[in-house]
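so im writing up the methods section and need the Protein-glutamate methylesterase/protein-glutamine glutaminase record in one place, dumping it here so i stop losing it
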Amino acid sequence: MKRVKVLVVDDSAFMRRILSDILKKEPRIDVVSTARNGKEGVEKIKGLTPDVVTLDIEMPVMGGLEALTYIMKQAPIPVVMVSSLTKEGAARTLEAIHLGAVDFIHKPSGAISIDMKSMDKEIIKKILTAGKARVSPFNDRLNRQVDLPEDIQTQGNIIAIGTSTGGPRALQQVLRTLPCNLPAPIVVVQHMPSGFTKSLAERLDKISEISVKEAGHMEELHNGVAYVAPGGYHMEIVQENKVLKIHLNQNPPVNGHRPSVNVMFSSLARLEKVTTTAVVMTGMGTDGLTGLLELKEMRKATFSIAEDESTCIVYGMPKAIHQSGLADEVQPLTNISQRIVQSLQRKRR
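--- predicted struct ---
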């Protein structure tokens, strides 16, 4: 069994120790060393060639974002950021993901989180997932605006996107290229804790032609707007007097996820005279599989797209959709926004 070699980089001796202790519990992980700042971390990477690096964002000498930028330019390897739950921490974390970080671990109680051990299973899972991730620097040149065809369907459409690890970068690629006059609302489930989804939505809104916002309870859906499920809440879509609305709840996690793609897809299966384009992108696990099965059984006109392995940071969720035979198409990330728009041309009802 190949073990995942990890380098832990944090300016706090306590955090270096507690992260190392958590990871050492897992026999599939080998903590090869620790470093006190980004500069020391970069130096150790050269000699140790770790499989994964955990990188604190706020550090002296060389901070996490500067170190990440250097790593991604010189020899990209999977990096998992360690971040606080503050608004500023969330914004910096999303900047790190834009720069190439695979995922992040949030500190539950500030820079020195003595309760980090309560997250041990989640931390180990993230590191093992990162060890399998495909990494590359972000390339803005891959993006191009999609034009809206003249024969588009203008009513009764909804676009639903589910994603997890690597999702923020994938969403950036897709949402920023959709036309502002898109004749459908977009609902998005991105596996992410509370405190981060609002910053994600705000960042996506700034760079997209469509509007992007964190979803609110009982909010009406409007065409050309993307609604991101808040971290810690399931998002269901319901019909009230022919109007589509968002219902948020804190029912128990489904297979460890809240929000859950399965929950969102299942709610869409109950909508009448609504045709869904369902998209499943990068992420570990199988969230979205049972929900999409229900959606396609109940609504035969559903059109589904799974992201191709070649562009996935983690090929788990799309793989499950593809291998189950539920994917109408398998597309690389750069084609997905175009195929979403083209799917609205189909006379599927």
